[in-house]
Amino acid sequence: MKPIVLLFCLAMIACSTKEVQSVDEEVLTFSVMMVQENVATTSMGEITPASGGAKLTLLGNELTVTGEFEDLNIQMQDASERPQTPVVHIHPGLPGEENEYLYELEVKLHDEGNSGTFYGTFELSDDEVALLADGRLYMDLHTHPQGPSTIRDQIQIYEPQDFETFLTSAMVLKP
User: 113, 105 in Cβ contact below 8 A?
Assistant: First the structure.
């Protein structure tokens, strides 16, 4: 009977150790506040009042993104017209650089068609996690007439005061 109790205790310790390890894993939070001023000048097209924001969380190598955009004054790209070009991307690169995207996000348009939400969950490589931590990834939103970015921002560690400033300035600019 004692060997069974011992095995049971060892199994419980092994299970509880795994749970503690997953609870201790650090969650990092990042943000983007996309506006046209952040777009690389080579791709800038029609002037737009559009803006967008997203929260990104990293747990281990799993990146989860939830965000929204508003005030697009041009039609969103029709996915059935060019399905190989998603509307919201995550790219490698520094400000002013344009590179091929790494990940595409799902987009849900609101009924009026000039605002919506986007989301996705991705398993990043260790190299991509390093790019994220270094501020060398950016997110952009594309529209049909321009192809390249309409609004963009570098993905950066979340600073609550920066996000509040962005939201306040966006509200002040609206009529």
Answer: no
Q: Is 134 helix (H, G, I), strand (E, B) or coil?
A: coil
Q: Is residue 6 assigned to a domain?
A: no
Rounded CA-CA distance 56/158 in Å is 9
Q: Within a domain: residue 4? A: no
Burial classification of residue 43, based on how many CB atoms lie within 10 Å of its CB (0-12 exposed, 13-18 middle, 19 or more buried): middle
In a domain, 19, yes or no: no
Strands (E), the chain: 27-35, 51-59, 62-70, 88-92, 103-109, 116-123, 137-142, 149-154, 156-157
Q: Is residue 11, in this structure, part of any structural domain at all?
A: no
Residue that wins the pLDDT comparison between 166 and 93: 93
SS3 43: helix
pLDDT for 92 beyond 90: yes
CATH number at residue 53: 2.60.40
